[in-house]
Amino acid sequence: MALKGNLRDFSTTQLLNLVNLARKTGKLSVNSPTIGASLYFKEGRLVHASTNTEDGNLTVMLIKTGKLTKEQAVAISKKSGSTSDNVIGKYLMDAKLVSREDIVQGVKDYMLEIVYDLFTWHDGDFFFDQDSESPSGRITMPLNLDNVILEGSRRIQELDKLQDELPDLSTIALKITDKPLRGVKLTQDDWRVISHIHPRNSIKQIAQNNNMDEFQIRKIVYGMMQAGLVEIIRPEGLEPKKKKPVTRAARKAASQSPAEKRSVVTKLIDRIKRI
Amino acid sequence: MQTVKMVITGPFSAGKTEFIQSVSEIDVVTTERKISSDAERVKNETTVAMDFGRITVDDDLVLYLFGTPGQRRFDFMWEILSEGMLGFIVLVDSVRPETFREAKHILEVFRGYATTTPYVVAANKQDLPDAWTPEDIRIALKIEKEIKVLACVATDKETVKTVLLELLYSILENMQTDE
Fold it and tell me: Which of A156, A176, B48, B53 is most deeply packed, by most CB within 10 A?
């Protein structure tokens, strides 16, 4: 089934979160009116990225990240006589132009630059092609999306959007999820927030305890929510608004015994099966 | 005569009226008006107060299905319709991700009205080629794993029956947990 839409309605953060949680494999194409980007995933990990203005091969990646000059790239391409990233990479290392670590870091930085840029897009049609694999001959590097989402979310600067996600800070608290924190890069501010998470503490109280303003706390909480590290709960002691049943049906239902209630539901089930 | 009610809610054009029409034994009593806003002109008419369908169980028991108006300017009706409901269904338009945020908002509002009332999410329009899968919609709307997200085609009686039955099974489970 298709996974398509527009970033206006479903943001990059939400998209990557979906790919991450559903452990999806395939190609995500995003096209804004001016530029297009393609991200490739394997089992929920980002493995390759390119834009429609650049090929995304190894030499382009290394030039863009300052590890290789254009002249060096041309020379090595001629010498290797190949367009395969693996072959070119080997030539580059043999010629001692770059180290293995340079290649790893260059590829990683290049992919992250594209994906972080995507977080700032507010418009663009997207389509996820589940059958598409990363282009042949290109180096792939599996990157954990948790950290990408966390960092990308930090770059979202729109208070409006954050307010939309977390409307009233005084009526919501946080709960740490079961997701292991090991391997996730948290900032000092993230840790300060985490240390104050308690079912009785609303997000507003956590902000006050840490001398953070609403924008700061929204950014941090939103980033951790998108990375699946925390989830929203209702603070303990803040009882939900209880409404007394006012309709005749509600009054009758409220006066029924559990067995009577079950009997009503069972009758409904039998009736609907017969429709 | 005992009457029980279920509420079918969801964003504008999610398919609430069709959902009720598929199983109601009476012609759905609907309060639709011509669409006046160009932005909302994905269909010709919209529900402004509520839809109303009925399923008679026996001489002593009747199930009423209430469909809420989808547009937010009629949301004053939501709380009135939610009073005393046995359970509710949030219908999501699987081919219009631009409505997911609104669907989540509606879900949260209804959960606020009735915190312990069981509900299910129905991913409607699954017969269309661009439909998001129920599992993708679960993630997109951040629906907890305990809540059922069901594939649905509101014009197909069988899938509508399945959604209603799954809600009733959830209601039964909820009753057993409460005891």
Answer: B53
